[in-house]
Amino acid sequence: MEVELRRLWIALILILAILYTVLQVVVRYANKTVKHQHEIIEKRNKTLEVLSAKLLQSEERERKQIAEKLHEDIAQTLAALKLNLEHINSLKDKPEKIEYTQLSERLIPAIHQAIDDVRSMAMEIRPLSIDDIGLIPTINWMCRKFRQEHPSIIIEHNYGLEEKDIPSELTLVVYRVIEHILDEIGARKNSTAIIMDLEKGENKLSLYIDNRVAVDNMKGSSADFHTEHSLETTSIRERIYLSGGVITISTKDNSSVFYKIDWEI
User: Fold this and answer.
1) Quick one: pLDDT band at residue 226, thresholds 50, 70, 90?
2) Which of 3, 50, 114, 134 is the Cys-Cys partner for 163 at CB 3.0 to 4.6 Å?
3) What dihedral angle (degrees, nearest 10) is formed by the CA atoms of 136, 140, 146, 152?
4) What integer is the mean pLDDT of 144-164?
5) How high is the pLDDT of residue 160?
């Protein structure tokens, strides 16, 4: 009987020892997991801080550009209009009808210029056509405008979706991304063609832009060309990242620059 009790106690002690050892392993693993998660959270917080700072800087740059345009274009045009109107007002009781007519003729183009500047600035801040007629017609308008400004560049656009397939929170983001890329392509030497596709896949919205470039402009390595013509110096990467998207830029066959942007939806 005593032998059996002793064996039972030994068995219980072994079981407790095993359980204690397993508990220690579990606790250590849990501590390690929690520590790893804290490190990930800290890294993400630092990344978000950097992105937030960059976004604020980007917003300040945009505000500065708007302020400069207001001062240099619209304010100066309105000041000139004011001076001309004051001069016309001083001539209303005088016989100088020829000068009066000439001043009136100068006012009309100035007024048209002020209206065009206001419309242009409104489009830069937020294109109202997105809310009025939708993103796809607005992209079509943007492509026509680009074609007028760059007649040597052929531009094609294809849509593998309908307007209703585009989440409302991404409409302005997609517009800005296309706008930035077209601006970059317009500044690139020897661009010959642009093929743009906007598609909806399974839980994904994808934008593809293939910029065909004359071979003479692809001197040096593809990596050098990719680095030189990436969007690193703009806020577009931060805008894409904060909207839940991913962008990749690559060269194809040493004759084109390919942009691929995916958003999970």
Assistant:
1) very low
2) 134
3) 130
4) 93
5) 92
The pTM of the whole model exceeds 0.90: no
At residue 56, φ and ψ (nearest 5 deg) are: -65, -40
**pLDDT digit string, tens, across residues 175-218:** 989 999 998 898 887 889 999 999 998 889 999 999 998 866 44
C-beta separation of 125 from 65 below 8 A: no
Query: What pLDDT does residue 10 have?
Result: 75
Q: List Cα–Cα distances, 134 to 164, 175, 197, in angstroms.
A: 9, 11, 17
pLDDT of residue 190: 83
Paired sense of beta strands 204-213 and 245-252, if any = unpaired
Q: What's the first-to-final CA gap in the chain, in angstroms?
A: 71
Whole-angstrom Cα distance, residue 18 to residue 173?
Answer: 57
- Per-residue pLDDT for 57 more than 70? no
According to the 3-state scheme, what is the secondary structure of the chain?
CHHHHHHHHHHHHHHHHHHHHHHHHHHHHHHHHHHHHHHHHHHHHHHHHHHHHHHHHHHHHHHHHHHHHHHHHHHHHHHHHHHHHHHHHHHCCCCCHHHHHHHHHHHHHHHHHHHHHHHHHHHHHCCHHHHHCCHHHHHHHHHHHHHHHCCCCEEEEEEECCHHHCCHHHHHHHHHHHHHHHHHHHHCCCEEEEEEEEEEECCEEEEEEEEEECHHHHCCCHHHHHHHCCCCCCCHHHHHHHCCEEEEEEEECCCEEEEEEEEEC
Predicted pLDDT at 132: 86
Domain ranges of the chain: 67-125, 128-264
Distance in angstroms (rounded) separating the CA atoms of residues 230 and 226: 6
